[in-house]
UniProtKB/TrEMBL annotation:
Pathway it works in: Lipid metabolism
Keyword Glycoprotein part of the UniProt annotation: no
Protein name: 1-acyl-sn-glycerol-3-phosphate acyltransferase
Biological process terms in GO annotation: phosphatidic acid biosynthetic process
Length: 267
């Protein structure tokens, strides 16, 4: 009987968390449709997304720990490089990072109903399977940095099989972009978001702590492409340094009969 009530509790919490996520979008959707029409207005659209993220994480009732190891960069573009463990990663980054930040995400996000076209015009979709798509996204990213707009990238490119435990190999593109533009890199560790919302079939949300660690900026001025392997290794080491034992394993939820075991990491 206890397993049944725990299952019902998880289902109810998933419903509540979903409601608290979609409500701000539908309330602000008319304003977003207006603001997306002009590039000069899109910073206000991003502000809506920022407060949307704050509203959702607050109403979820979960503890959110944010660690800033260095002072925030003032009036200077930079590239935030974060590990990717959950769809909630974007929400947490939008919540924490001030200003009109940009983000590069899979072009499949553009296909989402209602919000997808808005994402495609406000941020940078990328088709990594197409050389033309990668080139277009890189050009947009360079222009964004020239305009002073910080940029979020996930150098793994996708959610790996061992989120919060082991990193996927980093792609070179983020580091090539940082060196070409001379902007600093800020590594970001997200060790627990997959515990709140794992990337598994079916929508499952658990009441779990969220944590983000923003590391010291790493300067890239004067570096060349020959420095990419060492730079990549340094960023990977800093991100992985904040992985914690409670971040291991992928929760897969409950049935009314009992707890399903956590999905073992693929080795």
């Amino acid at each position: 009987m206890g397993d049944f009530f725990r299952y019902i509790g998880q289902r109810l919490y998933t419903t509540w968390a979903t409601f608290c996520f979609v409500l701000p979008f539908f309330v602000t959707y008319p304003a977003q449709l207006v603001l997306v029409r002009r590039p000069a207005w899109r910073r206000y659209l991003h502000a809506i997304n920022h407060y949307w993220a704050i509203f959702s994480t607050t109403t979820w009732g979960v503890p959110v720990e944010v660690v800033n190891e260095g002072p925030p960069l003032q009036d200077q573009p930079c590239i935030y490089l974060a590990n990717h463990t959950s769809f909630v990663d974007i929400l947490l980054l939008f919540r924490d990072i001030p200003g009109f930040v940009n983000i590069m995400g899979k072009d499949s996000l553009v296909k989402f109903p209602l919000w997808g076209p808005i994402f495609g015009q406000t941020y940078i979709p990328i088709n990594r399977k197409s050389a033309v798509g990668r080139g277009r996204a890189t050009a947009q990213a360079r222009q964004s940095l020239r305009e002073g707009r910080p940029l979020i990238l996930f150098p793994e490119g996708t959610i790996g099989p061992k989120p919060g435990e082991a990193l996927q190999p980093f792609m070179d593109g983020a580091f090539q972009l940082a060196i070409a533009t001379g902007v600093p890199i800020i590594p970001v560790s997200l060790p627990l978001t997959h515990k709140f919302m794992p990337s598994v079939p079916g929508l499952r949300v658990r009441h779990a702590k969220l944590r983000a660690v923003y590391h010291q900026p790493i300067e890239t001025k004067g570096l060349t492409e020959a420095d990419i392997p060492a730079l990549k290794a340094r960023v990977m080491a800093e991100i992985a340094d904040d992985f914690v034992p409670e971040g291991r394993g992928i929760p897969v939820g409950r049935t009314w009969r009992g707890v399903l075991p956590e999905k073992p990491a693929k080795g």
